[in-house]
Write a structure and sequence with these properties.
Number of strands: 12
Oligomer: single chain
Radius of gyration: 24 Å
Strand content: 15-25%
Shape: globular
Order of helices and strands: HEHEHEHEEHEHEHEHEHEHEEH
Helix content: 40-55%
Structural class: alpha/beta
Distance between the termini: 51 Å
């Protein structure tokens, strides 16, 4: 009996050693060092889909996330960045003012790797991850062009970012190429402002997701409503057909890939920029793959 116990312990130790060896080999094969990387994320209002993607990547790539969103404008964003530089291994950033951010970075002698998300700098960054904004605008424009209306209102937010301009220009080009006239309007993300800007139109396209729900709340019943991006509160309007269609991209992938790029950059590895594809979403396909995974990712 004693001999059996000794043999059982011996076999168990060998089994444990084998498990540890396999785990070490798997870790080496995956390239993960076991180091926990401090990654700072500077974004004012990341969506829950974007955050889910980052959280998943953080688990897979040994990252400790510090999401900083309490700043009010581009200047205070850079003040946050200045405080983070000494304590972070890499930064994921949505530059509120790309030109201002670029000037700031150009003055630094040393800085951590920087990954831009959603809006690129166009200069000193390790990589950029975000949607193809021109493709989003073009995709929506080609879709709207099938409408028999003659005039389309393109509604943009009051705070127009460079990526909004890319969407708007591509959308307008697609519409005019199809023979539709375009009118550009601006609105704040509230029903009163959207109603004032859109009251005389029945074909309306918004180029920012913050305007989707206010538009659905105030547009006339016979209006055809389109948009770029997705908001969780717009689900009922897309499902019912109140929203005729959306040009969307995977915000989950944007979060996952930007965090992954930040860790790779922190490790000193090469990173590549990623442009995310534009897809069409409406009531008929919103619960079918791949659209359901874009609108309702599980994370």
């Amino acid at each position: 009996m004693k001999e059996f116990s000794v043999r059982a312990v011996f076999v168990s130790l060998w089994a444990v050693a084998a498990i540890i060896l396999v785990a070490m080999m798997a870790q080496n094969a995956s390239g993960r060092s076991g180091k926990i990387y401090n990654i700072s994320v500077l974004m004012r209002s990341p969506s829950d889909r974007f955050t889910k993607g980052m959280d998943q990547a953080a688990l897979e790539f040994n990252a400790d996330l510090h999401i900083l969103s309490g700043y009010a404008d581009a200047q205070s964003q850079l003040e946050y960045l200045d405080r983070e530089i000494a304590a972070t291994d890499a930064v994921v950033m949505f530059p509120e003012d790309p030109a201002l951010a670029q000037d700031y970075l150009d003055q630094l002698r040393q800085r951590p790797p920087l990954i831009t998300a959603m809006q690129p700098l166009g200069g000193r960054q390790s990589a950029h991850v975000g949607p193809d904004d021109e493709a989003l605008g073009r995709t929506l424009g080609e879709w709207i062009a099938q409408d028999e209306n003659e005039v389309c209102l393109i509604l943009e937010p009051e705070e127009v970012m460079p990526y909004h301009a890319k969407r708007k220009d591509a959308l307008a080009d697609a519409l005019t190429s199809a023979g539709l006239a375009c009118v550009i309007g601006q609105a704040a993300p509230n029903p009163e402002s959207v109603k004032a800007a859109s009251k005389s139109f029945t074909l309306i396209a918004v180029i920012d997701e913050s305007l989707l729900v206010p538009l659905c709340e105030v547009a006339t019943v016979n209006s055809a409503l389109y948009g770029i991006g997705y908001d969780s509160y717009a689900r009922q309007y897309l499902e019912s057909g109140r929203l005729s269609g959306l040009a969307v991209y995977s915000e989950y992938d944007a979060g996952y890939l930007s965090l992954r790029a930040a860790v790779l950059a922190a490790e000193g590895k090469n990173t590549e920029s990623v442009m995310l594809s534009a897809l069409r979403a409406n009531a008929s396909n919103m619960y079918q793959e791949p659209i359901v995974n874009i609108l309702f990712p599980i994370g």
